[in-house]
Design goal:
Blueprint (H helix, E strand, L loop, with lengths): L1 H9 L2 E2 L6 E2 L1 H11 L2 H16 L20 H18 L5 H27 L3 H8 L4 H22 L1
Helix pairs in contact: 1-2, 1-3, 2-3, 2-4, 2-5, 2-7, 3-4, 4-5, 5-6, 5-7
């Protein structure tokens, strides 16, 4: 279910440059805020695996191993860090501020990995790298984290 959620939300994609705007991080935040660590990581790994073997689960209905070594691959690999950090920090915490901060730290870590991999592989300048991979996504990602924080209590009850 977790991998399917990531795959579906990956298809809501707006190309705004080398890194598209998607709802993948919304899916990762939801999973990590609702699932225990092992299930979160298993879902993300399964998503990456089915994408690597060529199923069109990545943004824009793409797939294939090349996506995992492309300039934007750091964001895909960063999902593991986002999921792990958030799932560990949430760990049965119910306070909204804790959910928000756990997701903020996880998402920020995903950004850091994605930015550094993009910079290394693309050999873009730091200014271009930040303009293409970070600045357009700051407010949308804060909105996604806020949405996760707001809807988590309801989803948690439904999942029980």
């Amino acid at each position: 279910m977790g991998a399917a959620l990531i795959a579906v939300l990956s298809q809501i994609s707006i190309p705004i440059g080398p890194v598209p705007f998607t709802l993948q991080t919304l899916a990762i935040g939801l999973l990590a805020s609702l699932y225990p660590l092992k299930e979160t990581i298993a879902s993300i790994c399964f998503y990456l695996l089915v994408g690597a073997i060529g199923l069109p689960v990545f943004a824009g209905f793409s797939g294939g191993f090349a996506a995992l070594v492309s300039p934007t691959a750091g964001f895909l690999w960063g999902f593991l860090a986002y999921g792990a950090i958030t799932a560990i920090l949430v760990n049965h915490k119910e306070q909204a501020i804790w959910i928000f901060l756990a997701n903020l730290l996880g998402d920020s870590t995903c950004f850091l990995i994605g930015v550094f991999v993009f910079r290394i592989i693309s050999q873009a300048t730091w200014a271009d790298t930040l303009a293409w991979t970070t600045i357009p996504f700051l407010l949308p990602d804060l909105a996604k984290i806020t949405l996760v924080t707001i809807i988590r209590p309801t989803l948690k009850k439904v999942l029980k």
